[in-house]
Design a protein that fits this description.
By secondary structure, the protein is of the alpha+beta class. It is globular, with a radius of gyration of 14 Å.
Length: 125
């Protein structure tokens, strides 16, 4: 987790706390716009990625599927964290039951919630 020195650090820490607690519905309700969009490279749906997930209910369904697939996530490091008034960006390395991953996320924010979530990932082990 990041030291909570900025609003972006707090938002990131809250996001990870929801994931660690498997509180997917609460995370989506609290952190994503009703019409939020996720672009994900993870191969967890019947169709090949990238997946474009639109709207609160679809996001909840996708994230439940994703967390079931990954299992417990152990974030090893967070790097290149940056934020502006309307965005948060970071890279991370984590391990899960599917392996070790180098990931990146960019969140475009609107009214304090994620409007568009761009996700990048490469399996590294």
């Amino acid at each position: 987790m990041l030291s909570q020195t900025t609003w972006g650090h707090k938002f990131f820490n809250d996001h990870m706390a929801y994931i660690y607690a498997n509180k997917i519905d609460e995370m989506i309700d609290d952190q994503y716009a009703q019409d939020g969009i996720l672009i994900s490279p993870f191969n967890v749906l019947p169709t090949p990625p990238p997946h474009v997930i639109r709207g609160n209910q679809a996001l909840k369904k996708f994230f439940r599927t994703y967390i079931d697939w990954q299992g417990s996530i152990n974030v090893e490091e967070v790097t290149n964290f940056a934020e502006t008034e309307k965005s948060i960006f970071f890279q991370a390395v984590f391990t899960s039951k599917t392996g070790r991953w180098a990931v990146g996320d960019a969140w475009h924010m609107h009214d304090g919630k994620i409007e568009v979530h761009y996700s990048f990932a490469q399996k590294i082990g």
